[in-house]
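Q: How would the structure tokens look for this protein?
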Amino acid sequence: MKVTARKKRGTPRKTVTLTIRRLEPELGARLRARADQEGLSVEEHVRRTLRAAHPADAPGESWVDRFRRDWRAATDGQGIELEIAPRPTTREPPDFSKF
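A: Here is the predicted structure in token form.
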């Protein structure tokens, strides 16, 4: 794998070029198929996949905050509904008068 950073002319941002050699043909086919499903180029699909796999954490962000952010992203902000198991009826408190 070769990673090089280049500064584009006239922009303060640096871009990185990533070259991956010897990629398995099956993996390449899966990447192409997934990109087609999403209406993206393979390059853009890989960019989005890498961004999702390696998010830029905000300074001081806790793992709970990251989990909540990732959960909202995974469920399109909708969350999920879980069935709450019925609670058993309350039982009589134990009788300690014999002790």
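Strands lie at 2-7, 14-19.

The mean pLDDT is 82.

Upvote if useful.
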